[in-house]
Each structure stands twice: as C-alpha cells, then as structure tokens.
Amino acid sequence: MIKLLSLFTIILFSSCYNEVKKTHYPEHKSATTVDTIQYTYNVHKNISSYVVENEGKLDTAYYQITYPIFDDINFNQLVNPYILIDGEESFETAAESFILGYNEFVEESSTNNISYPWYKDVKCEILTNTSLFVTLATAVDEYTGGAHGNHYTILSNIDIKNKKRIAIKDIIQDNKLDQLTKIAETQFRENEKIPDSISLDKDFFFENGIFAINDNFGLTKTSLIIYFNEYEIRPYAEGPTLLEIPYTDVKNILNPLGQDYVNSIM
Asked: Where does the Deacetylase PdaC domain start and stop, copy by copy (predicted)?
C-alpha cells in the first residue's frame, strides 16, 4: 500500500540532509606524498514523501550520495563528473531528479501496488591519494523495480598536475598492452582455476572467448587493479570480478609516467 507521509513523519525521516564527515589526511608521509590534497566526505540524502507499507513496516524511496570534497575548489570541479557518473549537474539535482522520477511513477494511474520502494545509494571513496594522482572508486547500488537491483563500480584515476583522467594506455609502454592483457589473463585463470587449454567462451562473455581487459582500473598501494562489473564478463548471479596485479608483475612494462605514479605511492 502506498501512502503520503504526514508532516510529522517527514520530519522523522529527515527528507533532505547534508552531513559533513571528518577530514582525511594523506596516509603516506614520504617525501613524495606530503603535498597530497586534503578532503572531507559529505553525505547528501533526499527521500520521497510517499511510503510503502509492507508487512506492517513503513519504507520510502531515497537517494543518498557520499562523496569527497577537496580543499581545492578547482579540483572538485575536475573530479565531480567521475562521481556523478550518470551526467547530473550537481549532487542536489541528482537526488531531486531520482525522487521526482519515483514520485511520478507512484502518481501514475497504472501504478496500483509497489512492494519495494526505489533507492539509489552512491558512494565515492578515495582509494589512493598521492602528490601526483588520486584514484576514486564510485560504487552505485540502486533499485527501480524488477527482480533485483543494479550494482556497479567505476574506477577513475585523476592526474593532479595535468588535471585529466588517466587511461590505462597512459601508464603502459607502447606496444605493451598485449603483454599486460596476458599478465591479467594469467591471474584471471589462476583465480578461476581454468587451465590455459580451456576456452573462455562457454562461461564468460568475452568476445570469441578471448580474454580482454577494460579501462576500469585503479592504482592502489600494492597493485594495479582491474574491475569487471556484473554482467560485463559473466552472469549477474556470479557477481563482479576483481583482478589485483602486483606492481612487481608489471614494473617492466610501465612507462616513465606509470613508474612515477607507482613511486609516488610507495
């Protein structure tokens, strides 16, 4: 059953709020990382004025986003598109648009029953913060009806000085991407316990059964990570796939810029 929230309930649910969390400082204090930029985490949340009553409990649609705010205003403008990955103009408009969509859905004459309200929870975490670059992981968990929700994570690496996103080809020597792919496939097969002689076309979604990497990668303290989201290379029920490739395995194929990025972490 769908009901309109009373004024008291709206106040109780706190329909829209912002919460600023503590400042985060660089974890690494070496000479190469003392200039890393500081940031705080902020939480913005909106809820719908419509609630769903299910088995005696009340629930409501919500949009919540947790994201870093850097001390450098210009850097915020640079990274925000990699947090608002659906192209929204601002965190406020993203929340308002999602809640408006749910409200309009509820108000449609064809909508007779809603068992579970919509939700969208976006969390952007700083994985790595050095003097040269920042690695973001933006994870989205959402439900807008159907058998199950959607979950995906986008990794973004931002060059602080050049103010641009780093592609995987930017850190690998020319003509060495094939070698990186082979290194990643070796780890993938080891993780999945698949011999080299077995094709990947039966259980995975690689084109023609040939392993391939994507550009959804990050640079962590110890590894180059490559992340495949649900549905990307295997069925939804089997979840996402994470490859963590130690820097020792790729040090010989990193170009000078890639080496500088990795050295700035150590």
From this structure: 58-150
